[in-house]
Amino acid sequence: MRRFAIALSALLLHGCDLFPIGVCTDELVYGIQVTVRDSMTGELLNVDPTGVLTDGSYRETMEAVGPSSLWGAPERPGTYDIEITAEGYRAWTRQGVEVEMERNGCHVETVKLEARMVALAAGLE
């Protein structure tokens, strides 16, 4: 009985780190989340941005999830280049964004970024 109590205590104290085999959930985890804002005001854009992720030959159009929030790379680790565009703004790019798997191997770890979009001067589109 004492051995059982010690083993139970170790499990409670160390959780999944003690036993590397974990229980994975059914949720879909996105590897990249980008919040898009106006660089001058810091406010969310009042136009809908679009985003494209590339990782080698892989190409994906990001999903709009709420206002000015783009998500991509669902459960897909890799090294991504990101381009965000929005009407009336210069394109925002980021290269070499690494998405990695969690230690337990169940899901990717979400990389959260903020794209500060620079407005185009009137008539210079």
Shape: elongated
Biggest sheet architecture: 4 strands, mixed
Q: How many domain modules?
A: 1
Rg over alpha carbons: 20 Å
Mean pLDDT: 86
**What would you call the quaternary organization?**
single chain
CATH class: Mainly Beta
How large is the count of helical segments?
1
Tell me the β content: 35-45%
Please report the total strand number as a whole number.
8
Side by side, the strands of the main sheet go: 4-5-1-8
Order of helices and strands: HEEEEEEEE
Helix content range of the residues, please?
10-25%
Describe the structure.
The protein has 125 residues and is mainly beta. The chain has a single domain, classed as Immunoglobulin-like (Sandwich), CATH 2.60.40.1120. It is built from one helix and eight strands; from the N terminus they run αββββββββ. A four-stranded mixed sheet has the order 4-5-1-8, with no helix packed on it. The chain has a four-stranded antiparallel sheet with strand order 3-2-6-7, with no helix packed on it. Strand 4 (63-64) and strand 5 form a beta hairpin.
